[in-house]
Structures are given as C-alpha cells and as structure tokens.
Fold each of these.
Amino acid sequence: MEEGEPPKERIERLLREGKITEEAVKAAEALWQSRLQYGVTIPNGETAVITLDDIYHVIVDNRIWRKPYRIEAALRGVFEIHTAEYGRRQCFSRWEEVDATQVGLVILEANSRLKSLHLVDERRLRKQMRHGGLLWKR
Amino acid sequence: METVKASFMWYENILTIFVEPTLDWAVDPVDATDSLVFLYRAVDENDQETGKIAGLQIIGFLEFEDWEGLPKLPMLWQIPGWEPLPLVDVLKREQGLLREKVGKQSHEQVRAS
C-alpha cells in the first residue's frame, strides 16, 4: 500500500507472519480497556490521552508488545519535558523494572495525545535531551 | 549498494518505513535534526545491534523538510511497485503522495460541509 499500512493492519500482518502473538495483541487491548482508555496522568499533572489505535501504533515494537505495561510505566516515569516542533512535547522517562532501570522517550501532541513511545538506552536519551527547550522538570 | 525490501506504516502524520521482513530493533534518536526522527537499528536475539537498519520513523512527516538531517545510509529501499531508491528519495516520493491525498481529503471535507 503506497500510502502505508495503518497500525492495525500492520499488526494483523505481523500476526499472519508469526512476528507477534495473538495473546500479546489481546493483552495490549485488555490493558488499554482496563487502565489506559481514560488517560494516564503524567508527573506534570497532565493527562495523556491514548486511543486503541495509538496502542496498535506503539505495540509494533516488540519491546512494547512483549511488556505492554511499559506504556503506562513510561508515562508515569516522565521526569523532564522538552519542546518539539508544532507544539509537540518530548517527554523523557525513567522507571524501574524487576531486573533493570528502563529509559524511554514519549512524544505527546499539543492536545496530550500519545504520538509515539520508544525505549532507548541512557546514552541515547541524554543525546536527545540536548534538543528542545525545557518545559518541565521533576 | 544493498537493496532492501521495505514497507510504510502511516498513522496520524507519523511515517515509519520498515525493512522487510521485519526485524527487531533498538531505537536511536537522530541527533542531526531538531525534528523528531528515530532510526531503528536491527538487533539480534541477544538484543545486540547487528549493524543493520530495521527502519526509520518521522513524526510530523507531512511538514518534514530537514532532509539533510537524515542519516546517510548505504542502502536502497524498495517499496512494492517502486524502483529501489535512497532513503531521502523514497521518503520524498511518499511525502508527495500523502500530501496530495491529505489535500484531497481536506478539500472533500470542505465540500461536504
């Protein structure tokens, strides 16, 4: 498809190709229904808005679909927010998991919609933190 | 130069281009641009980077203009039905198509109202 697959179609293709499991997709959908669909309050007091299509968009990354709790963890772990183009915000996050500290980057639209979520390593997070102006810091 | 098969994922002004068959990746924010661009570096089953590229994501793709800020990757990308192209060229073509489509949709919405 020249215009690009929408995320749900990509997920369905990944299912057919055996790259993601049906259990993982159902788990992400259930998580959205139980914990995310009404928004997640991030540490600056803002409520991040997440649609089910947003979930499909972020779970194409196996670091997310294998552990979908990371979506909420990344939002709640935001410790600094910088500006980005067109009113978007880049939110830098850190949270603890059983075996490691994870760091990530959450992109929010001006209207608080979740645009993207990426796990990165600490060095790359620090590199990206050189971009944008400081909006908020914990 | 290596040619890879590729596909697009398009969602609310975010374009992701993936190498196909899909690989697992580690995300590397592209430092050379102030736009939100993320390079997907392929990883193996031990989560170690292989040196290959798995894809790239651009947030705000319809407005994106910082082509010089994109990584210079020694590979050609082949979307089904297209000839193999360098990254900037395949993205510029896709941007043109999407801008036209979005422009057409906006026009139809205005007409419908």
Amino acid sequence: MTAATVTQDASGNVPMALTVRPRSDFVDTPYISEITDKAISYLQADIPVHLRGAAGTGKTTLALHCAAKLGRPVMLIAGDDEFNTKDLIGGEHGYHYRKVVDQYIHTVLKYEEDAVQQWVDQRVTTACREGWTMVYDEFNRSRPEANNVLLGILAEKLLILPAAHRDNAYMKVHPQFRAIFTSNHRDYVGVHQVQDALSDRMLTLDLEYYDRETEIAIACARSGMSTEDACGIVDVVRDFRTSGECEDTPTLRSSIMIARIAAAKEIRPLARDPRFVTICLDVLGSKAGLEKEQRDQRVQMLIGLIERYCQ
Amino acid sequence: MKMRGLKDIPTRHALLNRQVPRTRAQAAFELALLENEKAKLEREHGIWLANQLQIEARLRLAQERSVVLRRLLDDRKSGRKPGGKRRGPVPAWRSVTLEY
C-alpha cells in the first residue's frame, strides 16, 4: 500500500478499510470468470453494478472478488433495517470542549469555555472521499429512505451532507469510487422493495445457481473432499433443489456442509453408510418442510436420491 | 544619572570647572566616590549576568519540554504509537484483510 495524505475526519480518526483477497482454494471456473469480467468492465466504465440472486448464488463472494480485482481498498456495508442516513454518511457524535484560562497579567483573568459537536464520517462518506470500492451487501434490507443519499452519489457524483456538517454542504465523489450492490429479491422476510430511482442508476446482473462443475469444484475446495466423492453429494443436492419437493431451497451451502462434515469425520459419501445418510438427512431434512406427512414423503425421496448418486 | 533636583542639572560653568579638581583632597574624594560606584556597578553587573544565565537555562528547559510534548500530541493525533520507529512509508488508513 502506498503512502498517501491522511484525511482524517473532524474527530481525528483514521478510517479503516478492508483489503480483500481470494483464499488459496478460491475456485475460478469459466462461469465465474465470465460474470466477474462482465461486472469489472461495467465498473471500470463507472457504472454501479448490482448482483441480484437467491441465497447461495455467490453474490457476496462475487462482489468481493470484483472489488479485489479493482485493486482499491474496500468499504463493506451490510444492509440493515435499522439504518438511517446518519448510519451511512455520518452525523454529530460527542462534543469537543475548549476551555481557556488566561491570567498572563495577574490582575486580569480571561476565561473562555465552549463546546462544539463533533462531526464523524460514516462508511459511505469515507468511501466517497477516499475513492474506495463500496460493497453494499443486501442493500435492500435497509429501508429505502436510508438509501436515498446514494441517488446523488451514483448519478451526480455528489454527496449532499446534512446542514449539521458545517465545513462542507457538498462533497464531490472521488473519481475512483465504485459501488457494488447485492440483493436477494426472492427472500420474503426482512427485505424492502428497491426504489426505481436507485435501481435505474445501477446495472443489475441476475445470478442463478452455479453449474454442476462449479458446484463440485467449490464443494471440493471448501471441504478437502475428492472430486469423485463430492460429485455424489452435489448431485443429491441439485436434484433435491430442482425437484421442487422442498420448502426451503437447498443451495451450494448444503453441499459444502455435508461434504465438510463427512470429510471431518472421515466418512465416505456412500448410501450404505448410515452415518452419511444421517448427515444428509440432518442437513437437507429441515428443508423438506414441517408438515409430517409431506415431510416423510420428501425424506423418502431424499433417501432415494442418496441411493442413486452415492453408490 | 538619577535626577534628584535642580542641583543635579549641571551648569556650563560647573561643567567647565568640574573637569579638573582644584585640590588634591577634591581629587582623592572624587576618586573614592568613583571607586565605590565602580564596585557597586560591577556587583550589579555580576548579578545581572547570573540572572541572565538562569533565565536562559529555564528557557532552554521549557523549549525542550514543549518539543517533546508537541511530538507526543502529533503522534497521538496520527494514531501512531509514540516513540515508535518508522519503517517505510506511513499508511494512510488502517486495514483489515478479508479472505473470501
């Protein structure tokens, strides 16, 4: 990291950035490369990118991967329903007291005391000022009114600060500032609808579940299991997902969980091993639903899939 | 010369006549006065010099202390550990590494 001028906020705090890098076992298949290259090219053209997809489609990982490739420090923000504008751009926190007692001439006493509120920058302001890459994960979990401040940043490249910020009412966004957003549009709990004005200012890339080869490669990398063994697990999960016989959709995370547990316990993924079947049912059974009769049917279907792919 | 009254204002006549004492006694008297005054002035000069040296020493101490404190304040403001050795360029921000 090269030296640069320290731009501290009014309270004198040095900002903190994330340096993101891929793990040594990061899987980069042609599918992932294709999406990454597309997103990078849009970001380099100064177009904010929005990665949209269901849970387990790798939105956050891809966002961080793109941010790493841009080579700038990263400011990671996680969407939160409790957020308001202050949490994104900053506000006044605490006081700076100043007291002057001057008795240079012993017969004359000069006494001054004043208290001034301190402005403290938050993450969006820091990223805009320093030209970092902002990764706003699950931004639609924040209320739309909290995200209104992003409209000026993305379009006019201007951050409009509230009246409480006495030094500058407006701040020009650094030319190297880039924004990557992620959201899960299929979740029905804890998400808000994205306002048209914001989605109009970004380019949305819809992500689907990975292809079979990518899922197998990731499951192997994250569990240490061999490709041959991981194939069966991934096929069971993929078939269960596409069957539609599940209340909650099993994702790549389920494959990774099963593979990791089996690898840690040194259990080969074989249908004739009851320990392996138990692991699969523990991980995937909860996705079969709560109603007993329906659940039992689905569990039987699951056992059938295990017998079919894990011989 | 400290003015005490009209007597201290020398006239032209007095100035002319004062240059050379008329008698030996007058000269000796004036010499004695001058010797006393010289001794007094030398004592005063010595005290003045000692004061000056003392004040210079105190000034030097105050200057050294203020330099140390200023460096301490600058270090704290920039988030550096005071007294730490600088190795290479100073980072502009704190960083946390995230592997994904």
